[in-house]
Amino acid sequence: MTRDWYTEAIFYEVFVRAFADSNGDGIGDLPGLTAKLDYLQWLGVDAIWLLPIFPSPLLDDGYDVSNYFDVHPDYGTLDDFRHLVKEAHRRGLRVIVELIPNHTSDRNPWFQASRDPNHPEHDRYRDWYVWSETDDRYRDARIIFLDFEPSNWSYEPLRGAYYWHRFFRHQPDLNFDNTQVQQMMLRAVQFWLDLGVDGFRVDATPYLYEREGTSCENLPETHAYLKRLHKFVDAYAPGTMLLSEANQWPEDVLPYFGDGDEFNMNFHFPLMPRIFMAMAQADRTPIEQILARTPDLPAGCQWATFLRCHDELTLEMVTPQERAFMWDFYAPEPRMRLNLGIRRRLSPLLDNDRRRIEVVNSILLTFIGSPVIYYGDEIGMGDNIWLEDRDGVRTPMQWDGSPNAGFSTAPPEQLYVPVIDDEVYGYQRVNVMAQRAAAGSLLNWMRKLIHIRKMHPVFGHGSLRMVAAKPSAVLAYLRATADETVLVLNNLSSEPQAVTLELPAYAGQVPVDLLSKTEYPVVTCGSYAMTLDGYGYRWLKLS
Ligand code: NOJ
Ligand code: CA
User: Fold this and answer.
1) Pocket of ligand 1 (CB under 6 A)
2) Nearest bound ligand to the CA of residue 203
3) For 313-328, how does the pLDDT look when each residue is reduced to its tens digit (9 = 90+)?
4) Measured from the CA of 311, which atom of ligand 1 is nearest?
């Protein structure tokens, strides 16, 4: 049976603006990204996910779309995009773009017409957005961008009415009760499929419909539309991958897979903070608990897992006590906090401690799901919490030690945001070129683990069973298919651990370390003992 590619893929999330600037204007662009595809192929990832590249006023880095059918001039042209897709495919890399159905920019011509009764096209677009005479409808819907917006309603004087927005006030929500809106979004999908994309990361899926007396999240109407999206895509371009961004509890995410007829993939949001929590507490319990709450998926479906992304490290899917703990531990300075989260990158979160960075990546690459690596985390890039909103984790990729980190030839003051230039994470020290040359670098280590993961499909679609290792500082699990079994051990504590585990079902088998090739003593019916260094990890094939 051939498996769907995404069940075994490693994804790489790229902010085009941040990656590589080809024309010296201080802004990363599509030709710049295309020129770096050899690097991504060398790294070994299978698919690139591009943050929004559409025309936009960029008040939310492109999640405020003003035209769904073109490329932002900062990033290039549609031809540049075609070329990117061709060059990516030539290297065996797949290309995923964003679909942002829930809202548009307020500069989108649809909204311009909708808000203004004197606009020549007002009648056509009047009901494309969610309008109300008052601002007291849908009271049970939470506010997401808590640090920026006091309400989900904003007043539009031209129309003399309020419009609904789940995110920034400049991002009015489209009205999915309107059949023209429903169709227009499918037309946008078709447009990008025609350009050859391999899939969509669909933004903010829970919020498409609003109904009084509900949280306006995960509504049946929303699922019905998303199934229609799946059906459309399946008929038009079979094999296209749909990945949903639903920041919800596992039981609420499950319906987004449908019976395999809604999304192929969903991010596993609640797992992510629990990896950090388990590390902070040197105790696997948070990971164990969320796994126990994670349902089996329909055939052909897969989780997308991640450690960091372009947004704040979200703490929406934890209890208030857990959030307080996480803020205390990982965001001691108020400026590190944003909305219900933490605006820091992976390496600074882990104090730039190579051992901790390795063990969390060991978990990411061997636990359930297909991993998504955030650009720059493969070299341990830093952040700048003093930039606005989430810009601090979206700084230019650090290619080498030359001015502007080799990202751009523009004068430094012209860069879209400054490069990281501090004593620990500055581009002079942390960059691709230096790390490629250093055999023991984080980058070369990441590449090695990526390649090993890819040689063992068990990590993509094997079952996962927790092993009750002692002590609880060790996160241990078996990944298994009919062909292969791998035992993974991760020490979440800085202290070395003498681990014991019971593996009677595997008595007689010999564990061989996939990373070091070391052979360990044969497994017996009794308890099996092993020692792990502080933050040590092992991927042990049983054979
Ligand atoms: C989720 C995206 O990841 C985030 O960056 C964006 O601000 C919101 N959706 C609104 O589109
Ligand atoms: Ca440029």
Assistant:
1) 60, 63, 100, 167, 203-204, 245, 310-311
2) 1
3) 999 999 999 999 999 9
4) 5
Residue 532 alpha carbon to ligand 1 centre in Å: 40
Q: What is the value of pTM for the model shown?
A: 0.98
Q: Which of 138, 140, 124, 199 is nearest to 173 (CA)?
A: 138
DSSP E strand boundaries for 114-229: 131-132, 153-156, 161-164, 199-202
| Distance from C-alpha of 135 to C-alpha of 149, rounded to nearest angstrom | 14
Rg for the chain (alpha carbons), in Å?
24
Q: How far apart are CA 181 and CA 464, in angstroms?
A: 41
At which residue do the structure tokens 């790489």 appear?
Answer: 12
C-alpha distances out from residue 241 to 128, 222, 261, 490, Å: 28, 19, 12, 31
Give the side-chain half-sphere CA count within 13 A for 543: 11
Q: How many residues does the chain have?
A: 543
Q: Which string of b and e fits 149-186 if b means at least 16 CB within 10 Å? A: beebbbebeebebbbbbbbbbbbbbbbbebeebbebbb
**Backbone torsions φ then ψ of 256, nearest 5 degrees:** -70, -15
The number of the ligand nearest the C-alpha atom of 24 reads 2
Taking alpha carbons only, the member of 304, 317, 441, 429 closest to residue 374 is 304
CA distances from 18 to 10, 85, 385, 421 (A): 20, 19, 16, 15
Tell me the per-residue pLDDT of 447-462, one tens digit each, with 9 for 90 and over.
999 999 999 999 999 9
Atom of ligand 1 nearest to the CA of 64: 11
**What's the rounded Cα separation, in Å, for the pair 415 and 26?**
4
> How many alpha carbons fall within 13 Å on the CB side of residue 239?
10
H or E, element range at 306: strand 302-306
Query: Is the distance from CB of 388 to CB of 58 less than 8 angstroms?
Result: no
Q: Which residues pair with 266 in a beta bridge?
A: 244, 303
Q: CA nearest 102: which of 227, 217, 269?
A: 217
Task: Determine the pLDDT at residue 2.
Answer: 57
d(Cα 71, Cα 79) in Å, to the nearest integer? 9
